From TrEMBL:
Keywords carried by this UniProt record: DNA damage, DNA repair, SOS mutagenesis, SOS response
Name of this protein: DNA-directed DNA polymerase
InterPro entries: DNA/RNA_pol_sf, DNA_pol_Y-fam_little_finger, DNA_polymerase-Y, DUF4113, PolY_HhH_motif, Rev_trsase/Diguanyl_cyclase, UmuC
Main enzyme class: transferase
EC code(s) of this entry: 2.7.7.7
Length: 420
């Protein structure tokens, strides 16, 4: 049996944990630079659609709702707290997103009762409400989770039994576009073929659909039949590429501001490399103007900079990134976004040296590793960017616009909640 644990209205729930006045209020969380609504409490959903730009929300509705800037530091820490509890009780889990995880319940005799226990203890220790869907496959567990969240009579837990007579009716009522992994374009093609529900997809020729579209769709058909085809991934599988990027709060023409932005991206990317024990062999740097400004000149350059040898040392990556930035920067453009991607990643324990390249001596290598470990430990304990390479200007154009951000209650000493 596989379970899908999903935190209910996660961003809004995180805000409510430390501000009980938000309970039962219509809350919307805004995207970077306070652009669009990216998360909604149940109370907000009847009034504002997902993705709606904040400036388009009518004033009469605006007065009835609460809009908050994204507080990713708070959400990330609360996510870590929730799933560390899950992993205390179930080692075999797969983190799927910031608020979702698949659970291997195979060894639990009474998995429904166990999920009720897990749900209760997460709420007690973090204040975050969760729902868990249970079934034979990942795809069916996703459907079960959707039912658990929508119907309060299930108390947050729902078991979708493939042998239950209600199973057929459940899939008949589920539109094709709501199945996990079926995107808008694919659902339109399937609907044109007369496949508009999960039940019809389940009874389709899996092999034929696999040849027409992809092996992924073939597996989805089999998963709907109760045959598990999508395995639980291990938590420590490293990413093949690592991207760090950000849209700016205010467009800028200044090279020194772009240098600061990509330096922050490079530092964050190097930190992620070390976390998954990887080394990068090259880095990609890119800039973007705002494509939504029709009258502004457009320029979207990028460049790949090879590294002398595979590394996760922040200093070496920053040096390469700054070199790439200078080669693509052009004056008189208003830049709206920058980013850095770590490419050609290799396991640090399996790195292959180039016979002709200059390699670090063992003493220097050990000293550099110790320096990076110390940097990561300080920033993990005291907060990101407590120690960084180069200063950070809080008023720089590239910083996010966040006019309605709440406190980072769990990660900043000066923003801890105060009980009076």
């Amino acid at each position: 049996m596989i379970g899908l644990l999903d935190c209910n209205n996660f961003y809004a729930s995180c805000e409510r944990v430390f501000n009980p006045k938000l309970e039962r209020k219509a809350i919307g969380i805004l995207s970077n630079n306070d652009g669009c609504v990216i998360a909604r409490s149940n109370e907000l959903k009847p009034f504002v659609p997902m993705g709606m730009p904040a400036f388009k929300i009518p004033q009469d509705i605006r007065k009835k709702i609460i809009l908050l800037s994204s507080n990713y530091e708070l959400y990330g820490d609360m996510s870590q707290r929730v799933f560390s509890i899950v992993q205390d009780y179930l080692y075999d889990t797969e983190l799927y997103s910031i608020d979702e995880a698949f659970l291997n319940l195979q060894n639990q005799e009474n998995y429904i009762e166990y999920c009720h226990f897990l749900r209760k203890i997460i709420r007690q220790r973090t204040g975050i409400p969760v729902s868990i869907g249970i079934s034979k496959t990942k795809t069916l567990a996703k459907i079960a989770n959707h039912i658990a969240k929508k119907n309060s009579q299930h108390e947050g837990i729902y078991f979708l039994n493939t042998n239950d007579p209600i199973f057929e009716e459940t899939l008949k009522q589920l539109p094709i576009e709501e199945i996990w992994g079926i995107g808008r374009k694919l659902s339109a093609k399937l609907i044109s073929m007369g496949i508009d529900t999960a039940w019809k997809l389940r009874n389709s020729d899996a092999s034929h659909l696999g040849k027409l579209f992809s092996v992924v769709l073939e597996r989805t058909v089999l998963e709907l039949r109760g045959t598990s085809c999508i395995e639980l991934d291990a938590l420590d599988i490293p990413k093949k590429n690592i991207m760090t990027s950000r849209s700016f709060g205010k467009a800028t023409k200044e090279l020194f501001e772009l240098q600061e932005a990509v330096r922050i991206h490079a530092s964050r990317g190097a930190e992620k490399l070390r976390y998954q024990h990887s080394l990068a062999q090259s880095v990609l740097v890119f800039l973007r103007t705002n494509r939504f400004h029709d009258r502004a000149s457009q320029y979207h350059p990028s460049i790949v900079v090879p590294l002398l040898y595979p590394t996760n040392d922040t200093r070496q990556i920053i040096e390469a990134v700054q070199k790439g930035l200078k080669s693509i920067f052009k004056e008189n453009y208003l830049y709206h976004k920058s980013g850095v991607m770590m490419l050609d990643l290799v396991d640090k324990e399996k790195r292959q040296f180039d016979f002709f390249s200059r390699a670090e001596n063992e003493e220097t290598k050990a000293r550099n590793v110790t320096l990076m470990q110390t940097l990561d430990q300080i920033n993990k304990k005291m907060g990101r960017n407590t120690v960084s390479f180069g200063g950070i200007n809080p008023k720089a154009s590239w910083n996010l616009k966040r006019e309605f951000v709440s406190q980072r209650y769990t990660t900043r000493w000066d923003e801890l909640p105060v009980v009076k």
